[in-house]
Amino acid sequence: MSPTPEDDLISARANRDLSVFDVTSIDDLSFADIHLIFDIARRFRHYQTYKFPFNKGCSMVNAFFENSTRTLASFDLSAKNLSMDTSNVGSSSSVKKGESYLDTAMTMDAYNLKVIVVRCQEAGVPEFLARHVKASIINAGDGWHEHPTQALLDALTILDHTHSQDLNGKIVTIIGDILHSRVFGSLVRILKKLNATIRVAAPETFLPAHVENFGVTCFHSVEQALDGAHIVYALRVQEERGAAGFIPTLREYSKMFGISKARLNLADKNALLMHPGPVRRDIDVHSALVALDPQSAILTQVENGMAVRKSLLWLLSQRQDPRTKQGVQRR
Ligand code: CP
What is the DSSP secondary structure assignment for residue 131, as one 8-state letter? Predict the structure, then answer.
């Protein structure tokens, strides 16, 4: 008799727990944590829309103070697939009336939630809130700082493509608005943990000061940066963070750094094209490549986002070890 989906997931988990109660930065996660999240995500991906009972009786709030399509929808759908109750606060919340993020989070915590997912414009808010609430905080993007679940879904996509446990000997070329990118902030951290060789290519004004301290090699020629790369990762020009003021025109940027088929052909012949979304067609990536090109992994990234978020929500909400979050300072 074949195992039920529930049995299969329980077997894949093998009584393991994450070493953390909150996920606010990739720095928080060990190599073992990352592979635990991936082992379970791969099994959840196999069952896609199957409704698991694992988190029945648990609640989660999406506190999105900044716009989102992919991250908000996938956290909400993932929680529902695990039988969680969910609520959304954010752009319509009482923060607009002057309530602080801390008071908002403590109000949510009084509902005895398992998880609060936070997206906001300011770096460091999720890490700060994690010290004051009993619920697990997941950072869904804080300012220009980090977006750890994006990096997890990206790394899962890359490891599945390379059929490996780490990225030793693999070249990942990241192109675009690195300065304003929280996606870069988490991606570079996870790629370092997985031993990848990391190249970045961007106009000088899109490179943060001392970016090489992350262990990356900087290129001003996108063609040189792409030569032989196994992964081509394009970032969005973030006009909402003032990026247009750092380049002469979007048209010139697209001509110099936009990913076309001719540029993609400079990379390894099996290279994957990735982008976190939302894509700005014909600026970051030429339109024809976005969804339909066989090398584009952009929709695979979206699919892996559901699997990774289900994995995290199960692991954070249902611990095998009965310890609870320690050191929470109630104000
Ligand atoms: N990649 C990402 O965070 O997309 P959304 O802004 O749509 O959530």
Answer: T
- CB of 171 within 8 A of CB of 190? no
Give the mutation target among 62, 70, 181 for probing the ligand 1 site: most ligand atoms within 8 A of CB. 70
Report phi then psi at 106, rounded to 5: -70, -30
How many of the other CB atoms lie within 10 Å of CB of 115?
24
**Minimum-distance ligand 1 atom for the alpha carbon of 277:** 1
Q: Could you tell me the pTM of the whole model?
A: 0.95
Residue 125 and residue 118 in contact, taking contact as beta carbons nearer than 8 Å:
yes
Tell me how far the alpha carbon of residue 1 lies from the centroid of ligand 1, in angstroms: 41
Q: For residue 239, report the distance from its CA to the centre of ligand 1, in Å.
A: 15
Q: How far apart are CA 292 and CA 276, in angstroms?
A: 16
Q: Are 89 and 60 in contact (CB under 8 A)?
A: no
- For the chain (331 residues), the mean pLDDT of every run of 10, in chain order, is 94 96 97 98 95 98 95 97 95 86 94 97 97 97 97 98 96 94 96 97 91 93 96 89 81 91 95 93 82 89 98 96 78 52
